[in-house]
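TICKET: design request
STATUS: open
ATTACHED STRUCTURE:
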C-alpha cells in the first residue's frame, strides 16, 4: 500500500505510455521510419527512469513528459506527415499540409518547458524573471539541437527515408518553423505559470523585480577576474620559490 501510495501515479503514467508505445509498435505504417523516430524514445525514457530515484521531478512534470512522448510515438506509428488527426486538423485550419508535425513541435515547448523550469530552479537556483526566461531559452536550444540530430540521422542512418523522417512535406523552412512553434509553446507555458504564480503567490511580482536588480556584491568578470586569477597564481608561484630558497639555505647551513 505504501509503495502504491508513493509510486501509483508514476506506475499509471508508465502503463499509459507502455500501452501507447506497444500500439504504435504494432504494424507501423513504415517500420523503418518508426525505428528512426523511436531512437528518441530509446534514449529519453531510460534517462527519465534512471534519474527518477536520485532526482525525482514533480508529478506535473512527469505527466507532461508522458503526454509529449505519447504524442511522439503516435506520430511514429503513421509518420508525422500521415497521422489521421493531422489531416483532420489540416482541414479545420485550411492548411496545405498535415498539421500533426506542427502540433507536436508546439507541444514540445508547451509540455516540456515546465519540466525544464523545474530542473533549472532546483539545480541552478534560478529565481524570479530568470526562472521564466531560461526555460524558453533552453527549449529553443533543445528544439534546434533536435532538428540538427534529426537531419543527421536522416542523412547518415537512412537517407532514403530522410523525407518521411523529417516530415518537411516540401517546406524548405520546415525546421525553422518547427523551432518557432516549440519556442512559442514554451512562451505560452511560461505565461501560464507566471499567471498562476501571480495569482497564488503574493510575493511573485516582488521576486521578479528583485531578480532584475544588480546585487550589492556584484563584481565584473572577464578580464578583471582573469587578472585576479593570474595575480593569485603568480603569488602562489612566488611563495613556492621562496619556500624552496629557504629550504636550500637551511640545508646549506647544516
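STATUS: resolved
RESOLUTION: sequence designed for all positions
ATTACHED SEQUENCE:
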Amino acid at each position: 500500500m505504501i509503495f502504491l501510495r508513493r509510486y501509483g501515479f508514476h506506475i499509471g503514467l508508465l502503463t499509459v505510455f507502455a500501452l501507447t508505445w506497444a500500439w504504435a509498435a504494432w504494424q507501423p505504417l513504415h517500420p523503418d521510419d518508426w525505428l528512426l523516430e523511436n531512437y528518441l524514445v530509446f534514449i529519453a525514457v531510460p534517462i527519465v527512469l534512471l534519474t527518477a530515484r536520485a532526482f525525482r521531478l514533480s508529478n506535473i512534470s512527469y505527466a507532461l513528459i508522458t503526454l509529449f512522448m505519447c504524442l511522439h510515438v503516435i506520430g511514429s506509428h503513421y509518420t508525422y506527415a500521415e497521422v489521421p488527426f493531422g489531416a483532420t486538423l489540416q482541414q479545420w485550419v485550411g492548411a496545405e499540409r498535415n498539421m500533426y508535425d506542427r502540433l507536436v513541435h508546439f507541444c514540445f515547448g508547451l509540455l516540456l518547458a515546465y519540466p525544464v523550469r523545474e530542473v533549472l530552479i532546483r539545480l541552478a537556483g534560478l529565481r524570479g524573471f530568470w526562472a521564466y526566461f531560461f526555460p524558453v531559452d533552453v527549449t529553443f536550444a533543445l528544439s534546434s539541437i533536435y532538428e540538427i540530430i534529426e537531419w543527421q540521422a536522416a542523412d547518415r542512418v537512412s537517407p532514403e527515408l530522410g523525407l518521411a523522417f523529417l516530415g518537411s512535406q516540401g517546406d524548405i523552412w520546415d525546421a525553422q518553423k518547427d523551432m518557432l512553434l516549440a519556442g512559442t509553446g514554451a512562451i505560452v507555458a511560461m505565461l501560464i505559470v507566471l499567471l498562476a504564480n501571480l495569482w497564488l503567490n503574493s510575493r511573485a511580482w516582488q521576486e521578479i523585480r528583485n531578480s532584475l536588480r544588480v546585487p550589492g556584491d556584484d563584481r565584473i568578470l572577464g578580464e578583471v577576474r582573469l587578472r585576479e586569477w593570474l595575480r593569485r597564481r603568480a603569488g602562489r608561484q612566488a611563495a613556492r620559490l621562496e619556500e624552496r630558497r629557504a629550504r636550500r639555505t637551511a640545508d646549506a647551513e647544516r
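CLOSING REMARK: The two ends are 77 Å apart (CA to CA). The mean pLDDT is 86.
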